[in-house]
Each structure stands twice: as C-alpha cells, then as structure tokens.
Write a structure and sequence with these properties.
With about 190 residues, this protein is of the alpha+beta class. It has eight helices and seven strands. It folds into two domains: about 70 residues, Winged helix-like DNA-binding domain superfamily/Winged helix DNA-binding domain (Arc Repressor Mutant, subunit A, Orthogonal Bundle); about 120 residues, Gyrase A, domain 2 (2-Layer Sandwich). The strands form two sheets. A five-stranded antiparallel beta sheet has the order 3-4-7-5-6, sandwiched between helices. Strand 1 and strand 2 form a beta hairpin. The protein starts with a helix and ends with a helix.
Length: about 190
C-alpha cells in the first residue's frame, strides 16, 4: 500500500476523469511519480486511461476500499471546511474514522508523527456513545460544544462510527502529505 496510490485513487474518486498534470496539481505528487503510479494502477485494472485522462474503475474502487481497510480507515473524505478548527491557513483537510483506539498518552507523540510527515494540524477525537458526541482527546471537551456547525457536519459525514471509534481531522497544504501523515499515524498507533 502506498500513500501515492491511495492519494491518486481518492482524487480520481472525487474528481472523476482527470489528466496526470491535473492529478499532480491537486495531489501534490510530482508528475513523474503520478505517471508511474497510474501505470501501476492501470496494470492492476484499477483505472482506465482514456482521452482526457484516467478514471477509476469498479475494480479500482474495490482496491481503494481494501487499501483503506488495511490501513485501518473505515471512512475518509476531503472537506476543507474543517480548516476553521485550526489557525493554520490550511488548504486541505481530511476527516476519517478508524477503529484504532488512541490512548491519551499517545496523542502528543502521534501528533508529532503527523506533523513530521507533512500535516500542518491534526485533531484526535473519540466517539462517546452515551453522549453521542465526539470527545477531543487531550482537551477533554466535546467537538460539538466548541464548533456547533462543524459538529453537526461531522455527525452527517461520519454516519458509520461506532462507540469508541476514533476520528481524525488532519489538515495541511498537500493531499499527498496528508495521506502520508494519516498512514504514518495509523501505523504508529
């Protein structure tokens, strides 16, 4: 599983048919690497290359789902509105749910892993069932109490979350760096 492949598959899922120069621009991955990864993905049947760019196949959607599941990601979506949580001027944000549990004592170390791998900011949340809210780890406040409109949006986005599941909000400047950060955090937990 490579962060490059996941980033490109997510971009194709979001944008539809896209050329490699556009993919390079929206993902933050160099054009030569995009070309190499597209060739690998085409060989796996994950994409088809047509006039106007590459597009995701149904097999590609299955491959992406498998890659995400193997990384521990139950759900992931790009949503830049969550950049308002941070005072970082971030251009890109991902919200993801995972069944991996993060201990309070691991949050600072995992935040540092995310930052070293390219994220500008990361927030660790845990879904608390009796309250039906997302607890901000290390802070002890509920996300919905601090960000009412984003709290509602978070509930709407992350509908498959179960008791005790973790949710990460990761923001930065490049999709590739964010995916690399997410994978590094999940593999370090």
């Amino acid at each position: 599983m490579s962060a490059e492949a996941i980033t490109i598959l997510l971009a194709l899922k979001k944008y539809g048919r896209v050329g490699r120069y556009t993919l390079s621009s929206v993902t933050g991955i160099g054009e030569g690497v995009v070309r190499r990864v597209l060739n690998e993905l085409r060989g796996q049947g994950a994409i088809r290359v047509l006039r106007g760019g590459a597009e995701l196949t149904s097999k590609g959607e299955e491959i992406l789902e498998t890659m995400l599941n193997n990384a521990g990601i139950a759900f992931i979506i790009e949503d830049d509105e969550f950049a308002r949580v941070f005072n970082c001027g971030c251009r890109r944000c991902y919200v993801l749910a995972t069944n991996k549990a993060f201990g309070e004592g691991d949050i600072v170390r995992l935040r540092d892993v995310a930052i070293r791998n390219g994220a500008d900011a990361v927030l660790f949340l845990r879904y608390e069932c009796p309250q039906g809210k997302f607890l901000i780890l290390k802070l002890g406040n509920y996300f919905e109490d601090m960000y009412v409109d984003l709290g509602k949006k978070l509930h709407d986005l992350v509908t498959k979350v179960k008791c005790g599941d973790s949710v990460l909000i990761v923001c930065g400047s490049s999709n590739y760096q964010l995916i690399k950060s997410i994978i590094s955090v999940l593999s370090s937990s």
